[in-house]
């Protein structure tokens, strides 16, 4: 009986060790829904990407996606505060050449439109530049 009580008390004790800032975690779903609502007319939703820099613990987040030639892709960023909150997304082709970014001429843009010229794998890389939250979502959409 004593062993059973000891085993049951450990999870209860561990519950109280959860940090008080657990609510401050990145709410990917909420940001994703906002991004989907912000899609430009004519673009069709494909996929959402979680952008959680773990409060500065991650410098880079990368995803891959196969894109199709002669297709326009729309990629936006939504954050808990002002978009894009220092989040830079760069699209690289299969040779790792940067082909598009939401950061140009010293300015951040909430979205980018990329005209794909060759079918293949592309890399979506998210980095942080003076971000406050290191948190958000990015939505990929397409239009033929």
Helicity level, as a percent range? 10-25%
Distance between the termini: 67 Å
Work out the helix count: 2
Judged by helices, strands and strand pairing, the structural class is alpha+beta
Produce the secondary structure layout.
Elements: H1 2-16, H2 28-37, E1 44-52, E2 60-67, E3 71-78, E4 87-92, E5 98-101, E6 103-104, E7 107-108, E8 111-116, E9 120-128, E10 135-143
Antiparallel strand pairs: 1-10, 2-9, 3-8, 3-10, 4-5, 4-9, 6-7
Structure in words:
This protein is of the alpha+beta class. Helices cover 17% and strands 44% of the residues. The chain has two helices and ten strands. It has helices at 2-16, 28-37; strands at residues 44-52, 60-67, 71-78, 87-92, 98-101, 103-104, 107-108, 111-116, 120-128, 135-143. The strands form three sheets. It has a four-stranded antiparallel β-sheet. A hairpin with a 5-residue loop joins β4 (87-92) and β5 (98-101). The N and C termini lie far apart (67 Å). The model is unreliable at 10-23 (pLDDT under 50).
